[in-house]
Structure formats: C-alpha cells, structure tokens
Amino acid sequence: MIDVISFLPGKRKQTSGGWISFNAPCCTHRGESADRRSRGGIKIVDKGWSYHCFNCGYTASFILGRGLGFRARKFLEWLGVPAEQIEHLNLESIRHRSMEGLLHDRQRVADALADIKFDETDLPDDFVIADENTPTIWAYLKQRCVPLDYPFGLQGTPSDAKWTERLGVVVPFTHESRVVGYATRYLDDRTPKYINHTPPGYVFGTDLQQDTWQSVIVVEGVFDALCISGLAVLHADINDAQARLIRNLGREVIVVPDQDEAGMRLVDRALELGWSVSMPEWPAGVKDVNDAVICMGWLATLLTIMQARETSRIKIELRKKQLVKRLRT
C-alpha cells in the first residue's frame, strides 16, 4: 500500500482531530491560484485515507479492498506518485477483497438493482414484427449483422404527417423483459435518422447480459450493442443514472467509444468514472463496433476490444490523442 504521507509537501502539521494539513496540490489543476495557506487536509482512516481541499473544494478517498477511483487517482498523480505505483495500488486493493466483502457487494448490487424501475410502455400502433415476410427490413438487419431472433419490428407510417410513409426498423427497449421504450431507425436518407422514445436513465442491453459474465462492454448505439451483446447508452455520454445502473451490474466495465470526435467525450466520462476503455486499431473506414462486426465478424471484433482494453489513464489519454490527431488530418 502506498505511504501517501511520504508524498505530502514537507511543510505540514497535524491537528488534534487527526487531520494533516498542507498546501493543497489540486487547486492549480482546477483553475484556482496555488494554495499557500495549508488548506489541503488528509486523514488516515482504517485501511485508507480521506482528502479534502478547503480552498477549491476537491475531495477524494481510498479504502483498501475497493477499486481506486478517478478522483483518488488524480490526487495521487498531483502528489507526484509514480503511475506504476498507482496501478499497483489499484491491483492490490482489488486482490484484498475478502469473500465476505464480495458477498456483501453482491447483496448490495441486488438491492440497488431492485430500486431501478422503468414504466412499461406500448410499441407504436402500426408495429409489425419483422421477418422474412418483410424483405426490405430483413435484408437491412442481415446487413447490420445483428441477431435476427431479437424482436425487431417494422414501422411504415408514423403518426406525425411530416414523416408519413417513411420505412423504419423498430427496436424495442426492454428492462427485465418488459418493454419500456423503443427506437425507430428510418431507412431513407432523410433526417432525423433515429427517433428514440427512451425513459430517463435507461441503458439498452441489460436483458442481453448473462450472470456468469465477468465484464460488460458499453457502447453508444443500439446496433453496436446488439451485435456483441453489450450495453448502449444511446449517446456520447453517460449520465449519473446510467452510470449507477451499469455499476450495479457488479462487473468490470469496458467502454468502447465511436472513433469520432463526439466519441472522445465518452472517453473522458469513462475516465471520470474509473472504467476501462478500449479503442482498437480497426481497418480504415471502421468507426464503431457495428462497423467492425460487419467488416471483421463478431469474434474478431471482441478479440480486438479485449486486446485494446486499457485501465491506465496515461495510456488511454495517449491513445485518445492519436485518434483525435488522425480525425483532424
């Protein structure tokens, strides 16, 4: 375990309450002037520590047996702790988890998931199940390399007169096997391309997961998720409610952003949440998971995702910079 006290600035003092005060290292990284009044405070607690800056308000904490969070990582980096030691601390902390702790976490996850509810909703009135008898839709689904046993539908004439006679694929959104929303992907070149009817905080694909899986892949789009049995957050961000639902699955989270500038925002959010990120070297013209599956097949795509998976913030940032530079040239 890192002796965090040894990395503190030399000028420090300890209060009767157990807090050690020193010049906070976080302020200059958060747009504030450098702290010269010892406004940073750290308190060593059982198997960990808690930090608070009374200048810029930054807080971070660590308990042995839990994964090292984004805020704690940043604090250690600002103290000058080498990246190798930070990664070693994270691995040792995870290994330290006892069987009792794992069982407690499992029960906590089950209780938290029980609190996540979405209202059941109806599919469009003109919804028709897609199959071989709807050849245009069927050919489109085959081209997207998605599992054809998913209950896709056909929507031909939305109620809004502006979009009359537009042909689209309807993807039901389910949670605990109940329909809670849907998306329509229109097949013409007009906009909007997608229309989503999504409850707040919803994550597509939870019903695709299996209890024995040790990790979950988080992507942006519905078809990306369907072709690899992942989760889709439906935009280039992860809101707090979605993060809670994903975290409560109780497994490693691997975020795979679209390889475009919008997708890089998802990388930043994944780092903030302390999740793994994968940005594989895919063939030219492949920008997302579904493109990769169409180009290489689902098994090869999964292999590239797992091989490119990174937990190191430094390596993730370097790979992000490579992609951004490529996108802008």
Write structural notes for this entry:
- The chain folds into three domains: 17-97, no CATH class; 128-197, no CATH class; 206-327, Dna Topoisomerase Vi A Subunit, Chain: A, domain 2, CATH 3.40.1360.
- Helix content is 33%, strand content 20%.
- The chain has ten helices and 15 strands.
- Strands 1-2-3-4-5 form a five-stranded antiparallel sheet.
- β8 and β9 form a beta hairpin.
- α5 packs across α8 (289-296) and α8 crosses α9 (298-308).
Question: Could you list some keywords that capture this structure?
Answer:
alpha+beta; Dna Topoisomerase Vi A Subunit, Chain: A, domain 2; 3 domains; 5-stranded antiparallel beta sheet; 15 strands; 33% helix
Count of individual beta strands: 15
Shape: elongated
Report Rg: 23 Å
Mean pLDDT: 88
Count of DSSP H/I helices: 10
Highest-level CATH class of the largest domain? Alpha Beta
Compute the number of structural domains. 3
Main β-sheet: number of strands, strand sense, barrel status? Answer: 5 strands, antiparallel
Summing up helix and strand content along with how strands pair, one would put the structural category as: alpha+beta
Short description:
This protein is α+β, with helices and mostly antiparallel strands and 329 residues long. It has helices spanning 70-79, 83-95, 99-114, 135-143, 222-228, 240-247, 263-273, 289-296, 298-308, 313-327; strands at 12-14, 19-22, 40-45, 48-53, 59-63, 128-129, 153-155, 168-175, 178-186, 194-197, 215-219, 231-232, 252-255, 276-278, 309-310. It has 3 domains: 17-97, no CATH class; 128-197, no CATH class; 206-327, Dna Topoisomerase Vi A Subunit, Chain: A, domain 2 (3-Layer(aba) Sandwich), CATH 3.40.1360.
